Amino acid sequence: MNRPPRCTIILPTYNRANTLPRAVATVIAQSEPGFELIIVDDGSTDETRAWLKTLDDPRIRVALLECNQGPSAARNVGIEMATGPILAFLDSDDIYCTDRLSVTLAAFDSEPDVICTLSSARKGGKFGGAGAAQLPDVKLASPAFEWAMICGLLGAESTGITVRTDHARKVGGFCSTLRWGEDREFLIRVSRLGAARILPNALFEKGWSRDGLSNQWTRDGHNLVAYFRERPEYMGRYRKIGQYFVTKILVRHMRHRDFGSLINDIRQFREMGLLDGGITQLCRNHIQVRRYRRMAFRHQSLTTLVGPPPEWA
Fold first, then answer.
1. 228 and 111 in one domain?
2. Which of 233, 237, 229 has the alpha carbon at shortest distance from 269?
3. b (16+ CB within 10 A) / e for 190-201
4. 127 pLDDT tier (thresholds 50, 70, 90)
5. How many Å apart are CA 19 and CA 93, to the nearest integer?
6. Is the pLDDT reported for residue 111 higher than 70?
7. pLDDT recorded at residue 129
8. Does 107 share its domain with 244?
9. Last residue of a domain, one of 172, 206, 240
10. Within a domain: residue 308?
């Protein structure tokens, strides 16, 4: 009799025939064999579907979407199909380390009140090699977890997210209208349901691709506006944080000498009311938030984190 899987891995993919086999191979090589892998092909037009037909591992299921709907919608299809009590995610240009599942499942087993884990990563680069992006070893209660996500204290890479299936479904999965920031937006909603365990273990490697979303920086302003529409607290209660993210984008445009994107994003941000107060106030807020984030990321600060500074609320 087949045992139910201990966890379900959801892998959305779109025209990644060159990297998908490597990603799937790292799942099959896991030290924890009790998983199911759901690959959601999001309307690929390359050789992806031909390769998917060659898979014969009984732990792998495939869903084929007729047209491209974006990674959030594809992940939601996988969430609905999942039979495991725990969900892990994998982007098709990333790879798992061999203990990606065993370490996170052990965390869930040892701490029943934890509903989500975030793991550290190795970062692939344009010219090869990998740097470390290590998170502190800490447990965050629900309010602290929510604030850490809102303030951007911790990275929110989808491949590093593991969450209890019931909780992922309870919040409605990922926001299908977002193609950037959807992982952080998802975690903000999840954070209101319980605690998170942050793992210092580098359990995956984040890939680099020329057409990856992280390299489409000219659309950062457009993407941030879409994100703020889903999370209006950045224009209200946590306006200072919203303005910090805005000024980061504007400074990046100036560094790249991309004055077209700079002018367009200034217009968008002004229409949302995020550029009021003048340049002096924006700079003052940016420096204050940057200093706070650096201080709050320290291990001791995270262990005592309860929420935003009172004067920011």
1. no
2. 229
3. bbebbbbbbbeb
4. very low
5. 5
6. yes
7. 52
8. no
9. 206
10. no
